[in-house]
Write a structure and sequence with these properties.
heterodimer, A: mainly alpha, MetI-like fold, 10 helices, 0% strand, B: 248 residues, Rossmann fold, 2 domains, 4-stranded antiparallel sheet, globular
Chain lengths: 288, 248
């Protein structure tokens, strides 16, 4: 860590030789990587364009002119997905944190809530999201409850929030459980109550630790908002579907897929980098 | 002299294993009691029982004459009067040195941030760590981290300080800076119970040395008596082994 001035130093002949060998090795590795990539991707491309149906697929899935035409309606739908992701994401964060805290507390007053929270997580983590969307989207309006909106966007969001809160609660809970008991012992021995220990010592460390998996869930959330289209919400998927069923050309689906990927791929890359940094930090420090 | 701590016939087991067996101990104000003994003899468990981090199976614990082994006692209130330093430091990695020290004064003892910071800086200066105030614990050496942990427990002016093998995780050079810090506390009149493997250090600070074996104090007395002229064969055997390991 010390920054000594090394003005009088020049690499020894052995070091110069080593550097040359290292460069030669990395050149060779880059060459192998390039050759292997060209071979694998080239083969896949050849299989694709030489397949008997390629000409039909090209016109029905990759019609660039038609793609340009439907682009505005699909991107308008995508805006719905994004809104749903961010509004839903905020609600999920709050509910999941509450569930995780209830499940990890030992307070006797919260015993019934602990039981309910466990049942909640079991149910919503175990049932397919698409079923929850259908049940909420068609079941709740059928109840005819006064004051409960039957707006499909609202109900779709509720269904997604219900399911994802269960996923995210488990991620946060695993973070809380991963904090070493010695941290709790130190906090309690300083006189902090169990609530203060959770708030000032355990939770801040737990959340930091689960940021990468939470980012993963956020990417999944954005994709899964596409499922609310089954309730008739005109999101990107539904917008593409409407166009495709009118013309029997499936290019709108490809457009929607590309738009989703343009958002999710950078997010996934960022998440991977966050996980890598976390892993490196853990390896060097052992503890955090 | 007033007794800060009194343990009366303490018993504690983990499952079938008896860890503390009918153990009694009195710690007068401004004195240091040093617990020695092999690993697994019950030293750490004893400290954790005093701190109510473990519950005892029988016996009584009194802090300043108040029975703290009563199930109705406010545990948080008891811990506010005790300081504990751990073998593995247990600093909070997400907080700076200053935040580690001021957390309890601010949140538990209701001090203002300025007041807590000023007191913390005063202590940091005293232990030569003022320049580390804004750093995170992982940037500090083991000895510095342990001194921060000691300051953290001092910041709430405890009646009694419990030190659990505070130098066991440090290399020999760093051990000294931590032991110097503990010696300073001793000369300030801090009442302490320490578990340690550093016999030379025990000689320097101990008003009373207790040798533990299988959860019982088999020999107690001044450092001179217990460490240099032990009567009990078990103590003699233990010290012989320590001596062979070159730690006396």
């Amino acid at each position: 860590m010390s920054e000594k001035k090394s003005s009088a130093w020049s690499p020894s002949s052995r070091e110069i030789q080593r550097r040359k060998s290292r460069r030669a090795i990395s050149r060779k590795q880059a060459g192998i990587a390039a050759a292997s990539s060209i071979f694998v991707l080239g083969t896949l491309l050849i299989i694709l364009v030489t397949s008997p149906g390629w000409e039909t697929v090209k016109t029905t899935f990759f019609d660039i002119e038609y793609g340009k035409e439907v682009f505005p309606t699909v991107i308008k739908g995508l805006w719905i997905n994004l809104q749903l992701t961010f509004i839903g994401g905020a609600a999920i964060g709050v509910i999941a944190l509450g569930l995780a805290l209830v499940r990890t507390t030992k307070s006797p007053a919260l015993t019934p809530f602990r039981f309910l929270a466990t049942a909640y997580v079991d149910i919503f983590r175990g049932a397919p999201l698409i079923l929850i969307i259908l049940l909420v989207g068609f079941g709740v309006p059928a109840l005819g409850l006064r004051g409960v909106s039957s707006n499909v966007i609202f109900l779709g969001t509720v269904a997604v929030v219900l399911t994802y809160s269960a996923y995210v609660a488990e991620v946060i809970r695993s973070g809380i459980l991963s904090i070493h008991p010695s941290q709790r012992a130190a906090a309690r021995s300083l006189g902090l109550t169990s609530g203060q220990t959770m708030r000032f010592v355990v939770l801040p460390q737990a959340i930091r630790r689960v940021v990468p998996p939470l980012l993963n869930d956020f990417v999944s959330l954005l994709k899964d908002t596409g499922l609310v289209s089954i309730l008739g919400v005109t999101d990107a998927v539904r917008a593409a579907q409407i166009n495709a069923s009118r013309t029997f050309n499936y290019t709108p689906y490809v457009v929607a897929a590309i738009l989703f990927l343009l958002i999710t791929i950078p997010m996934t890359r960022y998440t991977d980098r966050a996980i890598r940094q976390r892993t490196n930090a853990q390896n060097s420090e052992g503890a955090i | 002299m007033r007794n800060v701590l009194e343990l009366v016939n303490i018993r504690k087991s983990f499952g079938a294993e008896l860890v503390l067996n009918d153990l009694s101990l009195t710690v007068p104000e401004h004195t240091a009691t040093v617990l020695i003994g092999a690993s697994g003899s019950g030293k750490s468990t004893l400290l954790r029982c005093i701190n109510l981090l473990e519950s005892i199976d029988d016996g009584q614990i009194f802090l300043d004459g108040q029975e703290i082994s009563d199930p109705h006692i406010n545990v948080d209130d008891v811990r506010r009067r005790l300081g504990m330093v751990f073998q593995s430091f247990n600093l909070f990695p997400h907080k700076t040195v200053l935040e580690n020290i001021t957390l309890s004064p601010i949140k538990v003892h209701g001090k203002s941030k300025d007041e807590a910071n000023a007191h913390a800086m005063h202590l940091l200066k005293r232990f030569d760590l003022a320049d580390k105030a804004d750093q995170y614990p992982d940037r500090l050496s083991g000895g510095q981290q342990q001194r921060v942990a000691i300051i953290r427990s001092l910041a709430v002016s405890p009646r009694l300080l419990l030190l659990d093998e505070v130098t066991s995780a440090l290399d020999p050079v760093l051990v000294n800076e931590v032991l110097t810090a503990v010696r300073d506390l001793k000369s300030d009149g801090m009442t302490m119970v320490l578990a340690t493997h550093e016999m030379g250090f025990a000689t320097q600070v101990a008003d009373e040395v207790c040798f533990l074996e299988s959860g019982s104090i088999v020999e107690r007395g001044s450092a001179e008596q217990v460490l240099h002229n032990p009567q009990n064969p078990k103590t003699q055997e233990f010290l012989k082994r320590v001596h062979q390991a070159g730690r006396l």
